[in-house]
Amino acid sequence: MREAAEALDVKVWRGNAHGGGYRSYSVPAQESQTVLDVVTWIQQHAEPTLTYRFACRVGMCGSCAMMVNGEPRWTCRTHVRRVLDGKRLEIAPLRNLPVIKDLATDMAEFFDKWTGAEGVFHPTATRKDAIAPISPADPMRQLANEAVECINCAVCYSACDTVTANPSYLGPAALNRAWTLQNDERDGAYAPRLRAVSADGGCFNCHSHQSCLTYCPNDLNPTASIAGLKRLSSTSFLRRGRTR
Q1: Helices (H), the chain
Q2: pLDDT tens figures, 43-70
Q3: Span 17-52, pLDDT tens digits
Q4: Which of the four pLDDT bands, split at 50, 70 and 90, describes residue 2?
C-alpha cells in the first residue's frame, strides 16, 4: 500500500473586524508546495468559507500577501519548506490593516495614504504635446528607477513598526511613491507633494528600522526613498529660512 502523505499542522486565522482566532487544519505536504497552495487546499477540501485574496499566482500582483509564521510575505512565492517551523505553519491576515474576513484585509487606508502623500502623477503637458524625452542616464530618472517597481502589495506597510505605533504615519509605500514622483521632471506637483510628505505623519516619522527593505518582495528600498524625502524637506526648510 502507498504510504500516507506527511501532514502539516497549519493554523489559520479566522474571523472578522470584530474578532477571531486561529483554527487548526491538517494539510498534506506536497513537493514544491507554496503557502498559497496550502490556503487553497484548506478552502477546497476543509473549509469552503475561508476567505482570502489572490490573482496571478506568479508573483506579479501581490494580492496574496499574508502573515506567514509572523512575517509578511507573498504566499504564492513562499515555499512551505523554507518557512516551516518543524511541521508548523501559521497564516494570518496582513498586520496594520483592518480585517474584512479571515485572511482578507481592507486596503482602503493603505491607498488613502498614497493620496495623502500626493502619490499621484500631476501632468504638466496635454495629450496634444510632444512626449518629453528623458535620458536613462539622467540622475533623477535613475533615482526614480530604483524605486518605481512597487506593486502596492502592502508587505512593507505590514512590516513597518512605525505604522503599528503611529497609525497616522503615511507608511513606506506611499512615501516611496512620492519619492519617485519628486524625481520625475514631467510632474507638476513638486511643492505640494513636499509639503504633504513633510507634514505630521510624513517622512520624518520614519525611524529607519529598514523592515520595509528586509521584506519587500521586489527588493526595493523604501527607507532610502524616505531618506531622500527627508533631505529634500530639510533643504527646502533651510532655504526658506535664508530668505526671511
Answers
A1: 35-45, 80-83, 108-116, 139-145, 155-159, 161-165, 172-182, 190-198, 211-215, 222-242
A2: 999 999 999 999 999 999 999 999 999 9
A3: 999 999 999 999 999 999 999 999 999 999 999 999
A4: very low
Quickly tell me which residue has 486561529 as its cell. Answer: 22
**Helix or strand (DSSP H, E) at 23:** strand 19-28
Helix, strand, coil shares of the chain, percent, nearest 5, are 35, 20, 45
| From-to residues of CATH 3.10.20.30 in the chain | 7-105
Neighbouring residues of 13: CB distance < 8 A, sequence distance ≥ 6 = 20, 21, 22, 91, 92, 93, 102, 103
Q: What CATH number has the domain spanning 108-242?
A: 1.10.1060.10
- Count of beta carbons in the 10 Å neighbourhood of residue 206: 23
Question: Residue 147: which of 223, 73, 231, 65 has the closest Cα?
Answer: 223
65-68 and 71-74 beta bridge pairing: antiparallel
Residue ranges, comma separated, of all CATH 1.10.1060.10 domains in the chain are 108-242
CATH topology of domain 7-105: Ubiquitin-like (UB roll) (3.10.20)
Report which of residues 140 and 117 the model is more confident about: 117
Confidence (pLDDT) at 5: 64
